């Protein structure tokens, strides 16, 4: 009789059926994730584990344990940069250009240090941050150490997930094999490798709002917000009201932000011409949707960072920040 594989216990806990199964504890999730990261799990086990979690949906304790294990596995530089904002970018854009990237660059040039990280290529027909940065002539970081140096020398760095954790990128890429996304798509956004005090999160489906806030609370995150953004990226849908949910030093509250753009300006972009980003930065392209998406995204970030006391003031400050940019050159290009 074959000996039971050490990972089998975790599949049994979550997969024994509706009456006997239960979520993993934070410690169990940490240990299970550690085995996955070390390559100690059979591919069949990994597929079963991920699909059970997907069907049952994510649990905050499991998410916190997952992040604990990933952080334990990070190859961090000896000297960590002091940054202001952690910005995950994992969805890609299909209906609008990645205006969030111009928002982040404008904020960085204003003095706000931003670490952006993400994944690319897991869903066909989408434009990802990596492609957009290349089009703008901005180099990606090659490692966490390289990211730290870029953030010390300037205020912006983007690092692909495959450089943070190759195993997690491989799991995200399993979507083409499994046919569905896995919990890693949710939890990888929460890594916050450089321990930024402010973290923005974005969701596509409302059911995922609380999992982000619950996990952040368990992880001791000082300031975070989550909202439904365009295409699943951290980008304000300016033609629609948005509910922004916050966790500030353990306190939870919500804010309703009104629409700031007429719906007639928010038609889907059928061309997705990425070269427009340079013209928008230079002030040559002033499409109302683009400008509202950029300033609206900046506004949410400023409000999170306590640089504005309400949405209206945040929007006003965001418009000033965007208007003050150096239009002659794309920053960091």
Automatic annotation (TrEMBL):
Residues 9-72 form the Glycosyl transferase family 3 N-terminal domain. Keywords: Amino-acid biosynthesis, Aromatic amino acid biosynthesis, Glycosyltransferase, Transferase, Tryptophan biosynthesis. Residues 102-251 form the Glycosyl transferase family domain. One of its GO terms (molecular function) is anthranilate phosphoribosyltransferase activity. One of its GO terms (cellular component) is cytosol. GO terms for biological process: L-tryptophan biosynthetic process. InterPro entries: Anthranilate_Pribosyl_Tfrase, Glycosyl_Trfase_fam3, Glycosyl_Trfase_fam3_N_dom, Glycosyl_Trfase_fam3_N_dom_sf, Nuc_phospho_transferase. Signal peptide: none annotated. NCBIfam families: PRK09071.1. PANTHER family: ANTHRANILATE PHOSPHORIBOSYLTRANSFERASE, TRANSFERASE. This is Anthranilate phosphoribosyltransferase. It comes from Candidatus Terasakiella magnetica.
């Amino acid at each position: 009789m074959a000996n039971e594989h050490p990972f089998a216990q975790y599949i049994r806990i979550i997969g024994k059926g509706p009456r006997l199964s239960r979520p993993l504890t934070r410690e169990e999730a940490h240990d299970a994730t550690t085995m996955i990261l070390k390559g100690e799990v059979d591919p069949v086990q990994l597929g079963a584990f991920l699909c059970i979690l997907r069907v049952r949906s994510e649990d905050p304790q499991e998410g916190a344990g997952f992040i604990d294990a990933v952080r334990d596995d990070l190859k961090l530089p000896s000297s960590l940069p002091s940054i202001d904002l952690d910005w995950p970018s994992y969805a890609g854009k299909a209906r609008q250009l990645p205006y969030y990237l111009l928002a982040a660059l404008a904020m960085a040039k204003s003095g706000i240090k931003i670490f952006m990280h993400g994944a690319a290529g897991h869903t066909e027909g989408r434009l990802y941050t990596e492609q957009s940065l290349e089009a703008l002539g901005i180099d990606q970081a090659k490692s966490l150490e390289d990211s730290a140096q870029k953030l010390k020398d300037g205020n912006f760095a983007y690092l692909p997930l495959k450089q943070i954790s190759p195993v997690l990128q491989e799991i995200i890429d399993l979507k083409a094999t499994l046919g569905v996304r896995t919990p890693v798509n949710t939890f990888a956004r929460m890594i916050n490798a450089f321990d930024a005090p402010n973290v923005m999160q974005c969701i596509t489906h409302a059911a995922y709002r609380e999992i982000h806030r619950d996990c952040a609370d368990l992880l001791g995150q000082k300031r975070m917000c989550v909202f439904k953004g365009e295409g699943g990226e951290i980008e304000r849908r300016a033609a629609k009201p948005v509910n922004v949910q916050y966790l500030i030093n353990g306190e939870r509250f919500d804010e309703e932000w009104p629409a700031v753009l007429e719906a007639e300006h928010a038609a889907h972009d059928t061309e997705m011409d990425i070269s427009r980003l340079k013209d928008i930065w230079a002030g040559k392209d002033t499409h109302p949707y683009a400008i509202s998406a950029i300033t609206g995204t900046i506004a949410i970030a400023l409000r999170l960072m306590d640089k504005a006391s309400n949405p209206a003031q945040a929007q006003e400050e965001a418009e000033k920040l965007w208007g003050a940019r150096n239009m002659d050159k794309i920053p960091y290009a």
